[in-house]
Amino acid sequence: MTFRSSTPDSASTANRMTEPDMLLWSEALLQCQLACGKARFYSQLGQLLQLLLPSDEYMVLLFDPKQPPSLLHQQKPLQSDDFDRYLQSAYVLDPFYRLGLQQKQQGVFRLRDILPANYAEYDHYYNSYFRHLKIADEIGFIIPLPADRRFVHIELARFAGSELFAETQLQQANRLFSVISSLVVQHQQQLPLQEGSGSAEHDYIDAFYRRFGTEVCTPREHEVLCYMLQGHCVKTIASQMQLGLETIKMHRKNLYAKLNIGSHPELLALFIDLLTLTEPPVRRDPLLQNPRLHYHSALSEAS
After folding, report:
1. N or C: which end of the chain has fewer CB within 10 A?
2. What is the pLDDT of residues 257-291, one digit of tens each?
3. What structural domains and CATH numbers belong to the chain?
4. pTM score
């Protein structure tokens, strides 16, 4: 996930470099090794990565399924309501979070390669809801940690006006992933465990996602809902579910009527807003707690 940064554009000439200067690389690598377990580690790692993938934004997050993400480093720290909302709840829709936690992937990924096809509507929401500057290109490292399904996500982004990352740079990053991953794991293992880490009260994030819409929607509608939360459009949902376009449109229309919304972005906003307001534990469909919805009173009486 990327937010505004006022750092100077260092990416416009980046694609002219085919291999990082080995002397500089060796020195930066040594400094990273010496910084393992120390506060300056991610700053040193950022300098190392700039030699490989010069970027306008560099940020490091620690994702843990049992608690909200921790911001480990940001090139230019930014405090804003959108940033806080992301850290508190909206991160669950981040494609990198979903890839690392739900699909248990690791490696170096380009954002546009992991997004659903025909992502335009979701992308418009994704940018307008969280970002102050348009992102031209984004690469993410997903580095699993040894226990508890935690992983570190390193994000490198280029803003509009910068050149895209070259394929050769992405290939270099993939070849060096094991080196970067080993450094990060070594660093994290040397840090003291935070008090309260892994608290069960934060398991409600997964429970919220699993139960969202289950008591309000039919099974088919709920399946469509889950695909929409992942950013899929009608066409790709129809392909995934092996149903006709009109059938998916009908399910979507019924969803919108039940949830009292009128668009895909409104669905995402509703999900995030309810996630922010819902207190653990989550034992029933969170949508039942939303008084805006047409079915609320009827379902409450029935229960």
Report:
1. C
2. 999 898 888 888 888 888 878 877 888 999 887 66
3. 14-190 (3.30.450.40), 200-302 (1.10.10.10)
4. 0.75
